Amino acid sequence: MSNDLEDSLRAALRPVDPGEKFTAGVMARIADESRRTMRAPRPHTTALRWTSVALAVSLVIGILVARELQLRRTQRGLEARAELLQALKLTGEKLDIAYRVVNDEEHAEFTKDSGV
Amino acid sequence: MSETPALKTEELLTRALAGDAAAFAMLVRAQQRSVYSLALRMLSDRQKAEDLAQEVFLQLHRNLASVESGEHLQFWLRKVTVNRSIDRLRREPRFEALPLEAADSVACEAQDADPLLLRRLNSLMKQLPAAPRAVVLLRYQEDLDPTQIARILSMSVNTVKSHLKRSLSLLRERLGETARSST
What we know:
The complex is a heterodimer.
Chain A (H helix, E strand, L loop, with lengths): L1 H11 L7 H20 L5 H70 L2
Chain B lengths: L5 H12 L3 H23 L2 H17 L7 H22 L23 H11 L4 H11 L5 H8 L3 H26 L1
Helix pairs in contact in B: 1-2, 2-3, 2-4, 3-4, 4-6, 6-8, 7-8
């Protein structure tokens, strides 16, 4: 029975041919696919190249600008520090003069009062 | 299974790979029976089977460089056909639920055999789930042994044998039921 069934299955499942048109159909689909592939817009390599160059240049410019701004900030900081130091120095000198004037006046008054 | 001798198949492969459309058409002609029949018995629909079989050959055309020999070509075609069919059955499960009477479109015209029995067997094949159906087809349509079937379906040889045994039992049982109900 098993062999009978297997033989019957082999007979029932004998390969069938799809017909002459099948191969033509496959070849037509291949030709169609090739045509579509050829017609498909290709990426513009020149445009891509220029885009890459533009991006690279923008990046370099960005880095340079950032660096320049940083330098300017540092420079301004140094200048402000120098100005502050100068102002402090001037203030110190003026305070010194004022102290000396006050001190001299007090000394003169003391000398006059004591009759020396 | 192929009508084209192995050496000729390899020559055709080389020529097709070089862009010879006529050589590729000859390869298609040599393999179309196997590919189409597998798809037809998996999907039980002539139009869907023809469409799927054509897609398999389109995929072959795109991947021709990966095919190493005539033997590899047959392995590749069977594997891709069965896997695509199983995928389609999973996506569209209505294919599996065709009524038994719809077997006419799939039955083959084998001579020296009881046409009613063959039609009934083709009809019963549709009751098998996708994987066991593929196993039975590769065994009895393509005449492959369990080891070759296991490689194509990426399953163990024991699983293949188990599917075969259970499918044959089921088919035998259903055939018996038919015989009893007709007497």
